[in-house]
Protein: Methylmalonyl-CoA mutase
Organism: marine sediment metagenome
Amino acid sequence: YRRFVKRMKNEVSQEIIACYIGGGDIQDKEVLNLHEAGIPVFPTPERAMKAISALIQYKNFFQKYISRLKE
């Protein structure tokens, strides 16, 4: 999973967000590895969706701002 996500981060232009559900020592290690790769990891799907929503809102705001600058 970790290798796949890291590879995808290098191959796609979109942001990658991970939601790691589980527990125990393996989760802690995997979350740390993903963080070190620059991939945000959220503890619940709800938190991940809030982050995605914020990214979309920022993108929409930024696109409107850029289009106004071009006018």
Q: What stands out?
A: Residues 2 and 30 are 7 Å apart (CA to CA).
